[in-house]
Write a structure and sequence with these properties.
Blueprint (H helix, E strand, L loop, with lengths): L1 E5 L3 H11 L6 E6 L17 E5 L5 H8 L4 E4 L6 H11 L2 E4 L4 H7 L3 H6 L3 E3 L8 H12 L2 E13 L14 H9 L2 E5 L2 E5 L6 E4 L6 E6 L7 H4 L6 E8 L3 H10 L8 E2 L5 E2 L1 H13 L6 E13 L2 E12 L8 H18 L7 E2 L2 H4 L2 H10 L5 E2 L6
Parallel strand pairs: 1-2, 1-4, 2-3, 4-5, 5-6, 6-17, 7-12
Antiparallel strand pairs: 7-15, 8-9, 10-11, 11-12, 13-14, 15-16, 16-18
Helix pairs in contact: 1-11, 2-3, 3-4
Length: about 375
């Protein structure tokens, strides 16, 4: 079967690489506007089962032509294209998944549900790590309990060898990170949906050595539509990002000083410039460390009752950079998750048609098993509390 991957950046390249490991995939087409910086791990496949396609996703006719005939389309393009790409997939009659990242856009995509369902298509946004992997695990935990009191999700992409002052390196997009640090986050409190400030309510979360103690704080996007689905049904639900201790306080100070603002200011010479653009241009290169291995730390805890007594369902993941192939932990967890989604759609392991999020329609046990086959191993965590 022919698979189409949109976006040849870090996550799209990892998605394509994973698809190329599957014998049932006869061809992978990797499409992007720029294709001159493909990672070395894709080089052995070029000219064989891997084809590249120069494509501007703003060109609707070209997108439709590329999509037609694909068994599934996986998008690692920035989130603001997701709605138009989902519409194109429905028009082209192909299964579609993306990495999500913006809940309002997901709700817009859900308006395509009936048309996609009539055509027997699966359209699935939010198929990365968070949203994505963690939502599938949270749903699995919810279904394992008789009643649920709280769902708490923690995720972080981190350097294995942190360097001060931020103890952080770019693992996907600095612009995306800053969006999460400056956007209000939806949570459930007392069963009601409410918004909290990013970087707030910091708590410590302990992981096995050498990771150790991390700090967790609110950021936007990770719960996606789950905060809406479970309003009035689950008292507490929240998503927090993990970083090394001290990171959040520094970023909060920068935000307070206006260094992350999007609104332009005027310099002494009359130049108009957005502080965030300067921040990204200045700090971005200093946080870009391609030779520094990363890790992904993740924990999902569901608390409630089972068999009439208090219980906790918990899962944990610590995944590390694949030095053999040069694939980062974030690429493995995000790109491979997207690839699994497309494969499950194409092979009808996702049975629900229409527009559904992973927590609504992904077969959790099969998904976790597929990750384990790729060395991304989610472990049961006994006696977890946070």
């Amino acid at each position: 079967m022919r698979m189409l991957v949109l976006g040849a950046g870090l996550q799209g390249s990892a998605c394509a690489f994973d698809l190329l490991q599957r014998p049932e995939v006869s061809e992978v087409v990797l499409a992007d506007k720029a294709l001159d910086h493909l990672p070395p791990f894709l080089a052995p496949y070029l000219g064989g089962r891997l084809k590249t396609l120069a494509l501007d996703v703003r060109d609707q006719a070209a997108v439709l032509a590329a999509m037609r005939g694909a068994a599934a389309v996986m998008s690692a393009i920035p989130y603001y294209f997701n709605l138009d790409l989902a519409r194109a997939a429905v028009e082209a009659g192909v299964h579609f998944s993306d990495l999500g990242g913006n809940t309002e856009i997901v709700f817009q995509q859900k308006k395509l549900h009936e048309e996609a369902k009539r055509k027997g298509l699966s359209i699935m946004p939010d198929c990365g790590v968070a949203p994505g992997m963690v939502n599938i695990l949270a749903q699995q935990g919810i279904e394992a309990m008789e009643t649920v009191d709280a769902v708490r999700i923690f995720v972080g992409g981190l350097p294995q060898h942190p360097e001060p002052p931020l103890n952080y390196q770019i693992v996907y997009s600095l612009e995306g990170v800053l969006d999460y640090y400056t956007t209000l986050s939806w949570v459930l409190r007392g069963g009601k949906r409410t918004q909290v400030t990013a970087l707030s309510e910091r708590v410590s979360v302990d992981f096995p050595a050498p990771v150790g103690t991390l700090e967790a704080f609110h950021t936007a996007g990770g719960l996606s539509t789950m905060a809406f689905r479970y309003e009035g049904k689950i008292p507490v639900m929240e998503y927090k990002t993990l970083r090394y201790p001290g990171h959040a306080a520094i970023m909060e100070a920068m935000r307070t000083l206006g260094l992350l603002d999007l609104e332009a200011v005027t310099t002494k010479d009359g130049t108009q410039v957005a502080p965030r653009d300067v921040f990204v241009a200045t700090v971005g290169p200093r946080l870009t460390k391609p030779n520094s291995p990363d890790l992904v730390a993740l924990r999902v805890v569901v608390e409630g009752k089972k068999n009439g007594v208090k219980a906790a369902w918990a899962r944990e993941l610590i995944d590390r950079h694949d030095a053999t192939h040069g694939v980062s932990a974030m690429m493995r967890c995000t790109g491979y998750s997207l690839a699994i989604t497309g494969l499950f759609q194409a092979t009808k392991q996702v049975t629900a048609h229409g527009v559904t999020t992973p927590d609504e329609a992904m077969p959790a046990e099969a998904y976790v098993a597929a990750l384990a086959e790729r060395g991304v191993k989610i472990q049961e965590l006994a006696g977890a509390t946070v």
